[in-house]
Amino acid sequence: MSKESLIKRICCSLGENNHPTYAVMAIALFKGILRPTFTMMDKKQDPESKRYAAFREGVTEAIAFPTYYIFGKLADKLAPKFLDKNKLGLDEKNLDRFNSVLKKPHKEFKSAADVLKNEGDTFKTAFKQYKIVGETTSFLGVCIAALLVIPSLCNVALPPIMKGFKKWQDSKKQNTIQPQNINFDKIADKPNIYPPIAKPDRQNALEIYQMSKGSAGMRVGN
Amino acid sequence: MNVSPKSLLNNQRLANIAQNTMYAVGIETALKAIGRPAFTLADKNTDSETKKYSATKEFLYQVLCFGIYMSVIPWFKKGGYHAAKRIFKDNKAVIDAFKEFDSKKIITKKNGKTKTIKGYDHFMHDYTQHKMNFEDEKITDAMHKIKGTIEGVSIIGSIIGLTVLAPLISHKIIHPVMSFIGLEKKPGHTEPEVNSGNQSLKTQNVDIKG
Question: What whole-number distance in Å separates Cα of residue A185 and Cα of residue A105?
Fold first, then answer.
């Protein structure tokens, strides 16, 4: 599959069905990578604060990413419950048939929808209404996740995680050698003080010269 | 007018909003600006000062994101329209569709005044009109491709706006605003999520022992 055809397929798919979760999940993923990176590049903050803030931002987006996916999928599954049967334009017989198609797994439904489309306008309207409900419930799921679920999950999950991170930071600090304030006023051991070395008993040169002046050739002491 | 939750979820207009990246991400950002600070203030594990600081900072950040996003995304949408010309240059139906949308069209606004539109505006007018009037059959395969390209480039624009531009600009703007409000913390102060109590670095007097 060439690069160009992949781009075309993505564009075609987004044109027919642009699920609200695609954009928000992509944003959460890149936010989780780039926001901590920019925080670490901030020169105004000290390294410890930066690491703390970056870690917290990363964990927040790591919680957000799967939550958007789960709530989007959950809303998709609940969509048939919110379907307004009056807008489907189906009689009882066709409604039973439509309900049986809804009960099948989603993948089958897509192909079954193609079959239903060929059956005439009756099921086309019903399928279109089903798509509308699917899109709106997915969007509602994303809104509920953004407004309520993700902030409350962060409130519950972040304190123990950040406590653990702080403990790890503190233990890392203790392992490094800390510069210590030395109290110079109190010295436990006095240095060894040796008695001053006595000056050797030697005559100076002047005294020797004066002694030898008057006794040239004579032996001293004889 | 029936505004029950069920009727809302079966509404075509809401579905159109859900399918539009700009509206979906814009609404989601606005909800984050409300939800995250509210839950931060409701957190019982943190002291009051830290809560106020975190909530205010988060609110300012999300408002900034919303503003940046809304100002940047229209450029990406128009860029997506032109990108579709390049991506589907081999598709005759798409090329013919572009010839139609690049021609001028005069529309009448609700206030009775007329307006001439062409290019991206012409395409969006026709596409939205078909959708809103439940005339989905008039939305051709070519229009789907163009719309899909616009949405794809919008997603890329959302990522660039919210994950690159917003953090870069927020560092310049949020600190001065927080200082102006009087909530800016001194450098070196951490922002604990938990009430870890007062911690201070104490100098240790160490006796040298032999």
Answer: 82
